[in-house]
Amino acid sequence: xxxxxxxxxxxxxxxxxxxxxxxxxxxxxxxxxxxxxxxxxxxxxxxxxxxxxxxxxxxxxxxxxxxxxxxxxxxxxxxxxxxxxxxxxxxxxxxxxxxxxxxxxxxxxxxxxxxxxxxxxxxxxxxxxxxxxxxxxxxxxxxxxxxxxxxxxx
Length: 154
What we know:
Layout: E1 26-29, H1 41-51, E2 57-60, E3 64-68, E4 73-78, E5 103-109, E6 112-117, E7 121-123, H2 124-127, H3 140-146, H4 150-153
């Protein structure tokens, strides 16, 4: 990897894998946390977005949740008093620990990842957009082989 892996951590990389398809785009849970490979999730996710520039990134901080009500509306829930990546007045995520939980939308613009804070509530159709291109990751088969489901063990 292009970054240092902490002693005792396991090296791994994000890959794009097909999921349930309930919402368009790629999701990054725990966006503001350092993962088991010693890398900030946001850093790895931004690199993955650059490999998949036709898709929107939905980046959910550890203490935040996206609630979808089934009628096309959403609400961002956060835990008061917990840290996150939103610093009042800042227009990009801040990982210093001084912020509050949030959800960010990220997209690739001219090979750079741009972040926009998701408003606290609204209509999904106003903030989420379908992919302009989907590039399947060739590593999905290998990842499935390394992480078999219970169904595969029967």
